[in-house]
């Protein structure tokens, strides 16, 4: 592994910070929408880390194409998953307007 | 006989009850005739095949059939003298019980299911008898549990469901413990064929602790079904099952499976030599003796006839274990022959108890007063069975106890003779009052629930014949014990083959 | 052959979206062809050894590479056959149970995701497969209608979170080593904090997705709420996907010290899953939830086997692990189909509904009991084979009495919850009357996998040989 410049460290630190914020939100947030957003923040943190890593230690300044391909794929997956989650959430609110509260077991 | 036949004969014996059983499951309730003929056809074929095998084994042939199963342990079916003893017992008694069950369950619901599981149960028992190694034995042992459970809960009442739960808890627990033991032994010596003289002798030195552990685990697993002392709790409760089921459980299938397993374990897995080297005989002997006395003692205070019989079973089956644990040839003859004798005697008693319950509604001991006049044939059969249990000549029971006593003297365990004497007294104390009430006391109250089951006989002929058949059988086995056809001479043949190696 | 196995379900799913009317038939068709192809592949691989292909002619490193070894082939065969069976069941019941039209394309996609997962040996491809699997599984759960949305959403969020953890681990590993292919990565593997952290992160994500204890909380609700054929697929196959990746990571990537260090975690969690999952299964009042909790418990066996394998490196444990996976898949499919059929016919979700089921629906009840026998590990079933291998391994290691005791306890617990149902079914006092005449075909379909799991025992030798060929 090549040495990390301070600038790189900063980016990595930011990515880690994003991840931590998202993680906090995911674990604490009681509302589903908040948790979906938190997942997106975690995703942003990871993608940022990958972007940073793509530039790591490559002398000519070119980015690692494999990582960029991965990020693209990951973004597509993340967007579709978020859309799906939001659709489910919308259906949930539709199904029981007004009385939205979590339940343990399916009703008898 | 061609070699092809020889190979498939053990499998055919199992299939002769398994296939009819599976077909019976698919039959409708109303197809009574077809079901009965299928059942009897299966019994007939099985008896025929067993006869074939009996003659061949007597001539010194061995049967062997194997399927690949686990690494180092194939599924092996093997017909040797010992397995044949059990196979003959279960096939003959299956015939009697089937006829009895047909009469007993006439007009009751869910008969297809009942007879289906009944056949499965016998198949599992026969498979267990023919099992050629421990893994195969384990397999049939578990199948037997599964096949008998629906029979125990057949009535579907709260009481029978509770008994069924208890039965399962005990037997499945025992099965798991047995599996642990078998796996341990398998990891030490694999699971070769059962061999007279055992196969662990070579590894005894250096593995004493593990072998002892394996033995203890397996005895605990088998002891559940054989109703050894702390593990007998399920047996008296399982009495809620219909009478033919109780008869089958007590005389042939379940408790005998445990006892038979102990015989196999002691003689054909560990062998006399290793048993001595590992000093395993003494604890087993103590346990069996304690069970004999405890069962008899508890039987004394039971007021329900079937429960009294159940405790008597606990006591009597341990005679087999005790005979085996003494490790002497004479005692072994006693134990082996008791396997057969106890089966025939106990099934007679259960048939009779069932007859009393079905015909007159008698369940309690005190209701028996004067039954001898109302149902003389059944009462006679019951008396014969009871005398056999006590060990009075010329019944079969006398023969086995005689040999057990001789065996105890032979291996110089004189305290066991005391145990036998005490237990004999207790047996008399709980059986003779029944006999006395039946014949010598006048009827003190009206029969609880009398039914007119037959115009010509005292009860339905299908209920009467099996009881008479087995009662005559147990008398014959006692009277003609010295002839070549008797279980005694067969047991001697087995013991001769078992002990010949040393 | 491998490409066919991937392309066919994909094309099938697209066609199903275009012509929803013929979707059921198309599903059956693709599943049949795929089953045959999987069998062919298995035969090829068992004769000629594992095969590898690079998609679309790209050079190694860039191309998506697929590798079929005997284990993968076995799992693919299992997937396609179960898919065929469940599709048949769904075909027989979809009108009655009002199964959404979405089921057909989604189940095809599920098959695609699983097949590609079994074939991938590249960390990022595995991620994509995982995501595909997770999304499709959630969509399938939500088919049940409004009451399933909440568990489905919960499942989705946790599944996404798990995937992200896994992805972060992948990113860290790629940053450190610059390769994604597992075998290439294993060559340059170093034991350091970074690789350990990455492994742990991925493990966390995968355990969450595989519902391994203590991260199993979402499973009973989701599997319980899904329609019966979906629950069968989810319990039998989907949770095994992440488990497979977990095994790949720890068996092929991790160095010996790392593996030994993680072993207690797996064995401990496995043990807890066995015992606590069993207790939960015993206590839940809902029929399908009971089966779902049983999945949690049974996954404990796989985890226990994995932990012991990592610790002792004894091939018997590897055999036990995969035998558990195979046996559990078949048995659980049978359980869910049987219970689903019974609850649908008798109307009701509670266990009490099953009262007297041995009279009203004997075949389905028999299927459940037979499958339950394998879950308990009664001989001669697949579950017994697996347990036997585990016991042999333990006795050979010697001095493992604690584990043996735990296995005994777990066995008894599973017996307790299986027979709780069976005893109820034998209750003759006022049995629950069926809402409509019980149908025979779905019951037979539930019985088939149950019989298959018992037949597994008779083919133990070829199975064990195949599993031993596998280097895992």
From TrEMBL, chain A:
The lineage of its organism: Bacteria, Pseudomonadati, Pseudomonadota, Gammaproteobacteria, Chromatiales. Belongs to the CPA3 antiporters (TC 2.A.63) subunit C family. This is Multicomponent Na+:H+ antiporter subunit C. One of its GO terms (cellular component) is plasma membrane. InterPro entries: CPA3_antiporter_subunitC, NUOK/Mnh_C1-like. Keywords: Cell membrane, Membrane, Transmembrane, Transmembrane helix. Its main location: membrane. The chain crosses the membrane at residues 6-29, 36-55, 67-90. It is found in: Cell membrane. The keyword Mitochondrion does not apply. It is a multi-pass membrane protein. Gene3D superfamilies: 1.10.287.3510.
Automatic annotation (TrEMBL), chain B:
The chain crosses the membrane at residues 6-26, 38-57, 81-102, 114-132, 138-155, 167-189, 209-235, 247-267, 279-297, 317-341, 347-365, 377-403, 415-440, 461-481. The keyword Cell membrane applies. Belongs to the CPA3 antiporters (TC 2.A.63) subunit D family. It comes from Rheinheimera pacifica. GO terms for cellular component: plasma membrane. Residues 75-115 form the NADH-Ubiquinone oxidoreductase (complex I) chain 5 N-terminal domain. It comes from the Bacteria. InterPro entries: CPA3_Na-H_Antiporter_D, ND/Mrp_TM, Proton_antipo_N. Keywords: Cell membrane, Membrane, Transmembrane, Transmembrane helix. Residues 131-424 form the NADH:quinone oxidoreductase/Mrp antiporter transmembrane domain. Pfam families: Proton_antipo_M, Proton_antipo_N. This is Multicomponent Na+:H+ antiporter subunit D. It is a multi-pass membrane protein. The lineage of its organism: Bacteria, Pseudomonadati, Pseudomonadota, Gammaproteobacteria, Chromatiales. It is found in: Cell membrane; Membrane.
UniProtKB/TrEMBL annotation, chain C:
InterPro entries: CPA3_Na-H_Antiporter_D (IPR050586), ND/Mrp_TM (IPR001750). GO terms for molecular function: lyase activity. Belongs to the CPA3 antiporters (TC 2.A.63) subunit D family. Its main location: membrane. This is Formate hydrogenlyase subunit 3/Multisubunit Na+/H+ antiporter, MnhD subunit. It is found in: Cell membrane; Membrane. Residues 120-412 form the NADH:quinone oxidoreductase/Mrp antiporter transmembrane domain. GO terms for cellular component: plasma membrane. The keyword Transmembrane applies. The chain crosses the membrane at residues 68-92, 124-143, 155-177, 197-219, 231-253, 259-279, 291-310, 316-339, 360-381, 401-419, 440-459. Keywords: Cell membrane, Lyase, Membrane, Transmembrane, Transmembrane helix. It comes from the Bacteria. It is a multi-pass membrane protein.
């Amino acid at each position: 592994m090549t040495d990390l410049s301070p600038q790189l460290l900063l980016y990595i630190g930011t990515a880690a910070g994003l991840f931590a914020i998202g993680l906090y939100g995911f674990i604490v947030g009681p509302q589903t929408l908040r948790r979906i957003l938190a997942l997106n923040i975690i995703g942003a943190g990871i993608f940022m880390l990958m972007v940073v890593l793509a530039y790591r230690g490559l002398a000519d300044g070119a980015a690692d194409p494999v990582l960029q391909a991965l990020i693209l794929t990951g973004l597509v997956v993340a967007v579709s998953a978020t859309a799906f989650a939001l659709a489910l959430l919308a259906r949930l609110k539709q199904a029981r307007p007004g009385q939205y509260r979590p339940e343990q077991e399916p009703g008898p | 006989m061609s070699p092809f036949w020889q190979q498939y004969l053990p499998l055919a014996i199992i299939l002769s009850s398994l296939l009819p059983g599976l077909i019976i499951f698919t039959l409708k309730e109303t197809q009574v005739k077809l079901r009965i003929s299928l059942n009897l056809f299966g019994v007939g074929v099985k008896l025929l095949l067993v006869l074939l095998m009996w003659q061949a084994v007597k001539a010194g042939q061995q049967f062997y059939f194997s399927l690949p199963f686990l690494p180092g342990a194939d599924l092996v079916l093997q017909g040797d003298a010992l397995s044949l003893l059990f196979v003959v017992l279960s096939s003959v008694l299956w015939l009697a019980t089937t006829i009895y069950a047909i009469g007993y369950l006439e007009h009751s619901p869910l008969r297809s299911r009942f007879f289906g599981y009944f056949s499965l149960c016998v198949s599992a028992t026969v498979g267990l008898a023919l099992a050629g190694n421990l893994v195969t034995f384990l397999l049939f042992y578990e199948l037997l549990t599964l096949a008998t459970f629906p029979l125990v809960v057949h009535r579907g009442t709260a009481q029978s469901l509770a008994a069924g739960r208890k039965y399962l808890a005990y037997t499945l627990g025992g099965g798991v413990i047995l599996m642990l033991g078998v796996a341990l032994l398998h990891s030490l010596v694999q699971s070769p064929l059962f061999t007279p003289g055992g196969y662990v002798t070579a590894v005894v030195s250096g593995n004493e602790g593990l072998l002892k552990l394996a033995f203890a685990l397996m005895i605990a697993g088998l002891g559940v079904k054989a109703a050894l002392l702390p593990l007998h709790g399920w047996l008296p409760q399982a009495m809620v099952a219909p009478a033919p089921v109780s008869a089958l459980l007590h005389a042939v299938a379940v408790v005998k499976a445990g006892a038979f397993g102990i015989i196999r374990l002691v003689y054909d897995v560990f062998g006399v030599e290793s048993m001595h080297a590992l000093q395993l005989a003494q604890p087993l002997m103590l346990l069996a003796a304690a069970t004999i006395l405890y069962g008899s003692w508890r039987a004394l205070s039971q007021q329900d006839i079937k429960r009294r019989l159940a405790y008597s079973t606990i006591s009597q089956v341990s005679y087999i274990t005790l005979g085996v644990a003494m490790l002497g040839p004479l005692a072994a003859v006693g134990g082996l022959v008791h396997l057969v004798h106890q089966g025939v005697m106990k099934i007679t008693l259960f048939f009779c108890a069932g007859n009393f319950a079905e015909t007159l509604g008698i369940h309690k001991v005190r209701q028996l007063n004067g039954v001898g006049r109302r149902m003389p044939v059944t009462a006679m059969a019951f008396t014969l069975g009871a005398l056999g249990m006590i060990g009075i000549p010329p019944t079969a029971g006398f023969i086995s106890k005689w040999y057990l006593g001789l065996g105890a003297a032979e291996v110089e365990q004189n305290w066991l003779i005391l145990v036998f004497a005490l237990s004999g007294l207790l047996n008399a104390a709980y059986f003779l009052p029944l006999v006395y009430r039946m014949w010598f006391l006048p009827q003190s109250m009206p029969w609880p629930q009398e039914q007119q089951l037959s115009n010509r006989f005292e009860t339905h002929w299908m209920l009467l014949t099996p009881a008479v058949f087995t009662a005559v059988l147990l008398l014959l086995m006692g009277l003609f014990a010295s002839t070549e056809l008797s279980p005694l001479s067969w047991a001697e043949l087995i013991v001769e083959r078992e002990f010949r190696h040393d | 052959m491998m490409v066919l196995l991937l392309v066919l379900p994909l094309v099938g799913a697209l066609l199903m979206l275009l012509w929803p009317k013929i979707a059921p038939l198309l599903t059956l068709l693709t599943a049949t062809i795929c089953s045959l192809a999987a069998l062919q592949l298995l035969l090829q691989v068992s004769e000629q050894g594992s095969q590898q292909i690079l998609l679309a002619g790209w050079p190694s490193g860039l191309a998506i590479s697929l590798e079929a070894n005997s284990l993968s082939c076995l799992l693919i065969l299992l997937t396609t056959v179960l898919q065929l069976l469940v599709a048949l069941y769904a075909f027989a019941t979809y009108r009655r149970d009002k199964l959404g039209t979405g089921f057909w394309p989604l189940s095809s996609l599920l098959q695609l995701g699983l097949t590609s997962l079994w074939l991938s040996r590249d960390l990022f491809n595995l991620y994509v497969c995982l995501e595909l699997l997770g999304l499709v599984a959630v969509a399938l759960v939500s088919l049940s209608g409004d009451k399933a949305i909440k568990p489905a959403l919960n499942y989705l969020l946790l599944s996404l979170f798990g995937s992200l953890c896994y992805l972060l681990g992948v990113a860290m590993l790629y940053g450190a080593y610059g390769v994604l292919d597992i075998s290439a990565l294993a060559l340059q593997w170093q034991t350091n904090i970074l690789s350990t952290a990455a492994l742990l992160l991925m493990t966390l994500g995968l355990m969450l997705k595989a519902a391994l204890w203590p991260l199993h909380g979402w499973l009973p609700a989701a599997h319980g709420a899904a329609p019966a054929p979906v629950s069968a697929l989810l319990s039998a196959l989907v949770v095994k996907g992440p488990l497979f990746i977990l095994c790949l990571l720890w068996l092929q990537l991790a160095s010996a010290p790392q593996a030994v260090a993680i072993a207690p975690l797996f064995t401990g969690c496995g043990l807890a899953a066995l015992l606590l999952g069993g207790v939960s299964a015993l206590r839940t009042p809902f029929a399908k939830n009971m089966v779902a909790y049983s999945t949690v418990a049974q996954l404990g066996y796989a985890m226990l086997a994995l932990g012991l394998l990592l610790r002792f490196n004894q091939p018997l444990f590897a055999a036990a692990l995969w035998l558990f996976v195979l046996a559990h898949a078949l048995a659980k499919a049978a359980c869910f189909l049987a219970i689903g059929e019974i609850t649908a016919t008798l109307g009701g979700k509670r266990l009490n509904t099953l009262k007297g089921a041995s009279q009203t629906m004997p075949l389905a009840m028999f299927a459940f009991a037979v499958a339950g026998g394998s879950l308990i590990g009664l001989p001669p079933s697949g579950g017994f084979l697996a347990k036997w291998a585990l016991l042999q391994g333990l006795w050979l290691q010697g001095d493992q009495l604690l584990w043996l005791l735990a296995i005994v306890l777990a066995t008894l617990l599973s017996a307790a919850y299986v027979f709780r149902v069976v005893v109820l079914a034998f209750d003759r006092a006022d049995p629950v009357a069926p809402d409509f005449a019980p149908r025979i075909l779905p019951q037979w379909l539930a019985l088939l996998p149950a019989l298959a799991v018992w037949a597994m025992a008779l083919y133990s030798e070829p199975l064990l040989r195949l599993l031993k060929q596998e280097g895992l």
